[in-house]
Amino acid sequence: MQAEEKVHWPDLSTIGYISGRAAVEEDINKGIAVFVLRSGQDIIGKPLKISLPQYAIHKDPESGQDTRVVIIQAEEANEQKVLGAYDFSQKSFMVGLLNEFTLLGSDASSR
């Protein structure tokens, strides 16, 4: 039987994020947001009441693959709850619906 691999979660203080307001293009350029929710030229995103940044597991709805990420953005619009995440192993960003993520909180020692 193989031992479970130890995950080295990043220090959240080193991860940029946006909280308490809707993201704008400048936030994406700074690397603290992943998306801007718009209707035409109007920004329609409203921040979700989720503690940010925090650790999470994203389950890809098509492949079923789990990815360890840090949630850096959480907004809703048109009854959709959308999260932006940083995939620290791939050094890339992703967007998904809230129900694709298992939120783990901000304590890396309990992961």
CA radius of gyration: 14 Å
Q: Assign the CATH class.
A: Mainly Beta
Helix content: under 10%
CATH architecture: Roll
The quaternary structure here is: single chain
From N to C, what is the helix and strand string? HEEEEEEEE
* Helix/sheet category: mainly beta
How can the largest sheet be summarized?
Answer: 6 strands, antiparallel
Q: So what's the overall shape? A: globular
Report the span from N to C terminus.
Answer: 21 Å
CATH fold assignment: SH3 type barrels
Topology, number of strands: 8
Query: What is the domain total for the residues?
Result: 1
What is the residue-mean pLDDT, rounded to a whole number?
A: 93
Describe the protein.
The longest helix is centred in the N-terminal third of the chain and has 6 residues, at 25-30. The chain is built from 1 helix and 8 strands. The strands form 2 sheets. Strands 3, 4, 5, 6, 7 and 8 form a 6-stranded antiparallel beta sheet that branches. It has 111 residues and is mainly beta. The radius of gyration is 14 Å and the shape is globular. The protein has one helix at 25-30, and strands at residues 38-39, 42-43, 46-47, 54-59, 66-77, 80-87, 92-97, 101-105. 5% of the residues lie in helices and 39% in strands. It has one domain: SH3 type barrels (Roll), CATH 2.30.30. A hairpin with a 6-residue loop joins strand 4 (54-59) and strand 5 (66-77).
Summarize the structure.
With about 110 residues, the protein is mainly beta.
